[in-house]
Amino acid sequence: MLVSVIGCGHLGIPHAAAMAHLGHQVIGVDVDQAKVDRLNAGECPIFEDGLPELLARHTASGRLRFTTDIRDAAAVAELHFIGVGTPIDADGRSYDNGQVFGAIRQLAPHLHRPCTIVGKSTVTVGTTVQVTALAQRLAPVGSAVEVVWNPEFLREGHAVEDTLRPDRLIAGVTSAEGEKAIREVYAGILDAGVPIFITDPQTAELAKGAANSYLGLKISYINAVADMCEAAGGDISKIVEILGIDPRIGAGGMRPGIGYGGGCLPKDVRAFTASARQLGADRAAGLLLAAEQVNETRIDVAMGLITGALGDRPVEGARVTVWGAAFKPGTNDVRESPALALAHALQRAGGTVTVHDPQAVATAVIRNPELDYTEDLPASLDGADLVVLATEWPEYRQANPQALVDRPANPLLIDCRTTLDPEPWRATGWTVHQLGRPGK
Question: Which of 8, 115, 229, 264 is catalytic?
Answer without folding.
Answer: 264
